[in-house]
Write a structure and sequence with these properties.
This is NodB homology domain-containing protein. Pfam families: Polysacc_deac_1. It comes from Deinococcus depolymerans. Helix 5 links the parallel strand 3 and strand 4. The strands form two sheets. A two-stranded parallel sheet has the order 1-2. Strands 3-4 form a two-stranded parallel sheet. The protein starts with a helix and ends with a helix. The chain is globular and about 45 Å long. It contains seven helices and four strands; from the N terminus they run αααβαββαβαα. It is mostly helical.
């Protein structure tokens, strides 16, 4: 979650925690790392909705964007970068059923599906995705339940093109 979302909806944040969901940082501001001077990126990476609660925390940079400093700053703050491999495209004007079919077609065991908290289609899309995952014998899990792995430049580029290119 971003800092403004946490401040605007503290009851939702408490409810997510109470329900056992993993809530991680998406930055203080929803700004691409390349648009931030280093001291602002430092603050961007440092912020976390569970500040002071210990443990390694995850950070998903807005837009998945990195500057040359992003990974170093994350490491200095004890954060791990968390990205996705399937973009739901819930920010488009397509109907939930169409988005769900396209998202499920790209989903594999261990996939991380990117959804957003603003679009009106997202709750309906989430319901369709959960149904589709169950039909395929897959279950949603928290990011902590997945084995982290590094991706190289080629895989990163392929993911980026797959997310936004079509």
């Amino acid at each position: 979650m971003t800092a403004p979302a946490c401040h605007a909806h503290p009851e939702a944040l408490r409810a997510l925690h109470a329900a056992g969901h993993q809530v991680e940082a998406h930055g203080r501001w929803h700004r691409h790392a390349l648009l931030l001077p280093p001291w602002r990126e430092w603050a961007q990476v440092a912020w976390h909705p569970r500040a002071g609660q210990g443990g390694p925390h995850l950070y998903r940079p807005p837009y998945g964007g990195h500057s040359p400093l992003t990974r170093l700053l994350a490491r200095l703050h004890g954060r791990q970068i968390a990205l996705w491999d399937v973009e739901s495209r819930d920010w488009t004007d397509r109907p939930a059923r169409e988005l769900a079919a396209q998202t499920l077609a790209r989903t594999r065991p261990g996939s991380v599906i990117l959804l957003h908290d603003g679009p009106q289609v997202t709750p309906e899309l989430l319901d369709a995705l959960l149904t589709g995952l169950r039909e395929r014998g897959l279950s949603p899990v928290t990011l902590n339940a997945l084995r982290p792995h590094r991706i190289g430049l080629r895989e990163g580029w392929t993911r980026l093109r797959g997310s936004y290119g079509g």
